TrEMBL record:
GO terms for biological process: cellular response to phosphate starvation. CDD domains: CuRO_2_CotA_like, CuRO_3_CotA_like. It comes from Vigna mungo (Black gram). This is Multicopper oxidase. GO terms for molecular function: copper ion binding; oxidoreductase activity. Keywords: Copper, Endoplasmic reticulum, Glycoprotein, Membrane, Metal-binding, Oxidoreductase, Signal. The keyword Oxidoreductase applies. PANTHER family: MULTICOPPER OXIDASE LPR1-LIKE (PTHR48461). Belongs to the multicopper oxidase family. Residues 74-168, 232-376 form the Plastocyanin-like domain. The keyword Transferase does not apply. It comes from the Eukaryota. The lineage of its organism: Eukaryota, Viridiplantae, Streptophyta, Embryophyta, Tracheophyta. GO terms for cellular component: endoplasmic reticulum membrane.
Amino acid sequence: MGLTRVNLLAGLLGSYIIRDPVVEEPLGLPNGDEFDRPLVVFDRSFRTDGSIFMSSIGNNPDIHPQWQPEYFGDAIIVNGKAWPRLTVRRRKYRFRIINASNARFFRFFFSNGLRFTHVASDSAYIEKPVTTNETLVGPSEITDIVVDFSQSKTNVAILANDANYPYPSGDPVNEDNGKVMKFIILPDQEVDTSRLPRRLVEYPVVDLSSVTHTRYVAMYEYVSKIDEPTHLYLNAKPFEAPVTETPRVGSTEVWYVINLTEDNHPLHIHLGLLKVFDQTALVELEEFKECMTKKNDAVKCNLKKHARGKKVAVPDHEKGWKNVFKMIPGHVTKIAVRFSYIHTNASYSFDATAEPGYVYHCHVLDHEDNAMMRPLKLVN
């Protein structure tokens, strides 16, 4: 904690794909290095000599000499290159797009109207393909899509971004950070033997009757006298405080994640996979915030009374199992968390109770570094 944002900014990141031929080959999706490509997307700023720039002056230098609430770069980088281009054939390609930014959200779309067909999200397939015109991807999320360039009416397509930063209520994108990469589409049609199956992979359903525990996780942001963020906590506790989340190996829990801040926070629970049921706006929010600030207890502060605003539907392509999910500000998000293998519901093949344990945290790197992270200890 404290240096993750700097280490990744310096380039300590990469991707690899773990495949299961028994499951995946029958699907007939685009495959091979040319047609199945990871796209690792992030933002960086550079000095005139080409070295990476990160301000060394914090927003509250008397409190944190170097920490800033979020890092945003001027240039968009894909697989190590700024605003790259890729020549593609008129056929289907699979792109596993990883948002490796410190804090930037991307809402991707194509300038020429090409569409995304989602086949998986993070590390799990969805049940059937879902086609969209755009897709919102938070830090550390993976959107796994197929793009059919044979449907393009132009020979050039720009993958673009229009997500405000910080998301959702920050500055609009500009000409530089609104562009991601260019696809140059060859003119000739060709035979494409890959396909989009009607069904993908189905996992065992969430059995709420087997839920062993219900937890409430509140997200807090604290500010200085000049209204600049100083730190962020989960459940008003620093990372060093004794562990309070002790799920059983093999169990399913329900978590209500309450975002009391103005930012969207992508929540990542190590070892556990999550499935989102719904997101509900909190009414009489300031009253609820005041109570939570004093008591830090969602039950005593009558969450049920306040969680009766407009519900936000979970996008169809994000209804499967996720590693990370975006927690909307001013909302409570109900999720199921599974602490076992999701494809069989079997327990882990290793000792998940071994030290030092695990963590859960906001995946905006600047937030988790200061100290929006808590320990997670699995028990038998």
